[in-house]
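Quick one:
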Amino acid sequence: MYLGMVIVMNTIVIVLSSIIVTCLILIMLIATYNHFQDYIIRINEADVNIDAILRKRFDLLNKSVGIIKNNTDTEEQILEILEKIRSKKLNNFELDRHLYDAINEFHALKEKYPILQENKEFIKTEINLIESESEIVGLRKYYNDIITDYNKLVKNCPSNLVALLKGYKSKNYFDGHNLDQEKGAVKL
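Output:
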């Protein structure tokens, strides 16, 4: 009888231990999944904010075309890159690069036509572009910081198990680099 009680007690301890370990593993998986969801929400939020600033910059450059044409006697195509941007479906990375080129052209036109430096609308547009540049720099940094943490979750154990199960992959930084291309990163 005593031996039977020991076997029953050992069985109960093993079953309870298995249940506790299973529950702890499930809690860890759920917590890791929720951590991924938090980063995904933050990435999407940053992406939406970047998109809004890029649209603002595009609209400012678009507006400047009319200002430049009205204040200069030029027949040349002004900011041709804007036409190309309109005709393409670009992601934020590509749009940012094209807008950067357009802004450089905008500044070159300012130097080419000094009369533009006296136009209040042109100056206002230039100030807004400068302000939007500081906004986009801050948003890029925020986005890249979130991407760094997200990519660490994707690559590090045990969270990489959840990433594998859910199909989460490393994301690119806003400057187009991925985690393996980061300075000093070693691909294993």
